[in-house]
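Build the 3D complex.
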Amino acid sequence: MNEKYFPEVIEAKWQQRWDETGAFIARDEDPRAKFYCLEMLPYPSGYLHMGHVRNYSIGDALSWYKRLQGFNVLHPIGWDSFGQPAEQAAIKRGVNPRTWTEENIVHMRGQMKRLGISYDWSREIAAHRPEYYKWDQWFFLKMFEHGLAYKKLSPVNWCPKEGTVLSNEQSSGGICWRCGAAVEKRNLEQWFLRITDYAEQLVADMKEIEEAWPEKVLKRQRDWVGRSVGAYIDFGVQDSDQKVSVFTTRIDTIYGATAVVLAPDHPLISELLEGSTLKDDVQKFAAKVTAAASTSARRDPAEEEIKEGLNSGVLAINPFSGEAIPVWVANYVLMDYGTGAVMSVPAHDERDFEFAQKYSLPIRQVIAPVTHAQQAAEPLSTKGTDQSAEMHQAFTEYGVLINSGEWGGTLSEVAMKEMAERAESKGFGRAAVTYRIRDWGISRQRFWGAPVPIIYCDNCGTVPVPLEDLPVVLPETAEFSGTGESPLAGVAEFVNTTCPTCNRPARRETDTMDTFVDSSWYFFRYTDPRNESAAFDPAIAKRWTPVDQYIGGDSHAVMHLIYTRFWTKFMRDIGLVSFAEPVQKLLTQGMVTNRVEGTEEWKAMSKSLGNGVDPDDMIEAFGADAARLFILFAAPVENELRWIESGIEGAVRFLRKVYTMVWRWQERLSTGQKESAPANADDFTPAARALRRKTHQTIARVTDDFEHLHLNTSVSALMELYNTLADLDAQPSTASASDAFAVREALEGLVVMVAPFSPHIAEELWENLGHSQGLLGSGWAVWPRLDEQWARKEELEIPIQVNGKLRSRVMAGPDVSEEELRKAALADAKVRSFTDGHEVLKVVVVPRRLVNIVVR
RNA sequence: GCCGGAGUGGCGAAAUUGGUAUACGCACCAGACUCAAAAUCUGGCGAGGUCAAACUCAUGUCGGUUCGAGUCCGACCUCCGGCACCA
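Done.
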């Protein structure tokens, strides 16, 4: 062992040893309790950034912690290796996407190994390899078989500059996320997965995870699914046998409906206006606002579109009141939510109110606020409160119905239920739940993805590829012009095939799948990564799943996590797994940001902003151990982490000090007193006694912090333990056998607890302390055992009387007797008194940090 | 606008059930070592006040509960994040 700390030597040594001994390989047959720790799999962009380092440092700390406690830990990694950047590299630089991807993986794997992350590399997977995406295709076919995969004509976001299709997220605000060009709409036949079938479960099953997922993630998922409870109501059309179905969440306001409003692209419009003189005007208007909506997508979401509408001249019949009200067409009604038609109730809906004001439609109040008198079970009056007052804004709360026929005087909550029942019994409506979520469009008109395993035959139509013919292998290469349709369409030997049913010439589907498909089930593949006959063996997966702890950025809080929850529910339905929720606990880590040069702004590190920090530079300058320690110490894991270079020096200093201290003590312990466990507390000198107390308090704190993922404070606790040891170290050594025991206990505890943060140095020091087996190789759990007697801060409750009254709270270590406390309270106490001018109100006694008594 | 979350030193941040506010670290200041610097070590470090102390004031603002409030309650201000015409 060297006297000085050389991180590069220690880290290389242990990384090699871990590799050779397969230290982190998880074994299916290991009988110990399992722990599945998962980090979101990275896209192989070429380089690790500090966000990755933070993610993996958190996951690794937890994995080490669980291993040291004796769990059988699965900690895998892989590559989300399909996707656009590889294809962009092909378009721009003529590189083969496969070559580009494989080279990136090699580089990033090297970076991860230099960081010393404890992955089970034997389970590494990559989405772009046929042995993986074969099972994407298999799942697709299973969904097809169950009617969950279907094709429909659907508008896509088309970037005219790049000539590619963009996802909604990539084109938000109507501009391409990469090139900034205005996005156009085009209609293409696209494959969809029926995630809407699972909308209810996606909301309902949240109760299983609501304790262990961040509230903000659950909320965003809830919003995304957008469940709302209401009713469908059919309005008849005057002089016609047509009817207009509307969806409302406020059926209780239906007597206040003064119009029915259709979305501009509502299919009924042309039918209703057949023969009407207004037909041309309305259709022109509808075409105008539809076009406006698709081209001038809002860039600033804060600016609301102006409401525009046109009276169609048609009248609709309110089925409750029999009243005839005009049918309007307006841009504020959306075709793709509900039925594309609403009943307009200006008095009780803000949007309808605004619309009614603009076009001078009548505003009729039918809900009145509940007064105290009415709440107190007085006979409800059917008269409104304050009918004469003109409304200045919509009253959107629940209340009491007025001007509502037989329901006058009924409470909103009651009326909603009764009116829905009436509608159903009379056959003009029913209670219903609608969702905002849409089916998941998975078609991508690109090369670098898993081909959709479908064949089109002129005879047999759309034919699924037989399971035994999988995988449908992506061709080696294609023509990457960056324009037009999928590059796959230009590869004749791929497209041209024979129909599996009739054997005649047929064409393959040239769309590939969204990469979110790959990432929806990848962590099941880790449990059985080399299986050639199934996505995974359900029996083996059962051994490891569900994931105990998932860690990643909250940029995936909605889509990835919704999709993977959906996928798991489908897997349960086809009998592959037995649970509905794939992830027990979720942690969304904060971003790592850096100051953008020349500004006051802190932004996520990125190449384009030039504020990136290369992890390799960090490792070279400070060592992986220090870099990882600092990134976990600097802020709570869920906070944004502002990267400050000087902070990392503190981490290096700490490790260096621990290193030299262990080195010094190791000599002293080996030449000095034999250590032996003491019979009782009195065998310790006061300094050693204090050390013991600190050791066990630290064990308690660090253990508790790990359970709650408060990694920053556990590092603080370890630093405090070091400081206590260093104070003892500075005193002349008079170590007895008991004191030597206390010192070794503290040193070993410190080293073991440092391991999750800085595993290389911990292994080295553990070896120096005389353990030849390595931290994980000894066959038993080495996480320090907590002696609660010694960790306890509060033990004695001592009544102290003042004027016959008292309240007391006493804090003391286990080695402090009641006598001592009393003495301290009398002799050493710092007494503060407060008066209100006449008499003493209270006394606070604070002796030697042991007692805090408040009496009156 | 709606829904979440957060406001504590120069900075990142601590603070079981309400119980010594500012742990731990960064930066900074002074001293030791050094020809000098770096590194290292020792001490200091919320504000006011004092030779030093006592003491006073400090957890976004104002009020309340309590012997005691960063923590609980009410009102407000500011910042960050998400959503956005979802009927």
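The longest helix of chain A spans residues 645-671.
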